[in-house]
Amino acid sequence: MKIYLLEDNSIQMGRLEDAVAHELMTFGKDLSCVQSFDKPDQLLSAITSNTSDQIFFLDIEIKGEDKKGLDIAKIIRQNNPYAIIAFVTTHIEFMPQAFGVTAYKYINKTLDEASFRKEIGETIAQVFPINATTTDEFFLYKTESQLINLPMDQILYLSTSDIKHHVHLQTIHTLMDIRANLADFKKIHKKLYPCHRSYIVNTDMIISVNLTNYEATLINGQVLPVSRMKIGKIAQIVEERGRGC
């Protein structure tokens, strides 16, 4: 795991580092995985890999440039679709643009200390999934050109793409494009179920099933179609999960 901090105000940086250190302790980690920067170019130069266990806490205004942090986030996201990005700032007016780069969280600097640390802790917790204790709880897909290894509790669903031989992988944080066929993923993990000819859903992410409209609602509020032949099985899976079967 790597955590990168970008903040040009020394007082705010100290506060951020203290909050990160405090929350890392709850996971048995220390600041050795944290790198702090006040210059965007230095941060970008320090990134040596593109993995799902990278967290970026970015201020939006850097050295008087209102949207510098947003620009840096766009570069990070272009190179790493798996990274977790959180903005730590007072510029509420840029919040819609922040989510435009699939930011996980927008943390307001004006929060009281307890709330501020809670927001930091929730962000860090994304790379310490509660249920991902064995390799069975990871989504692993490998080809000659791609390697994707993500905790299953970050996977929402896979769907067909308008591009031939491409598949969309929708995670909690971002939408990824994979060169593959949807059928390649039918047996990749026991929690992935082909609910429709165009979708394979992570059944753990379903919170409700509409038996009349043939739909499944996911934890993020998104609704997926379910085929008539599969609706009964989807309902059974969700019911059994609720009973702990």
From TrEMBL:
> Sorted alphabetically, which keywords does the UniProt record give?
Activator, Cytoplasm, Phosphoprotein, Two-component regulatory system
| A single GO molecular function term of this UniProt record | phosphorelay response regulator activity
Lineage, top-rank taxon, reads Bacteria
Pfam families membership: LytTR
Q: Indicate the secretion signal residues.
A: none
Q: Give the protein's biological function.
A: Required for high-level post-exponential phase expression of a series of secreted proteins.
Q: What is this protein called?
A: Response regulator (Homolog to BlpR Spn)
Give the classification, highest ranks: Bacteria, Bacillati, Bacillota, Bacilli, Lactobacillales
**Gene name of this polypeptide:** rr09
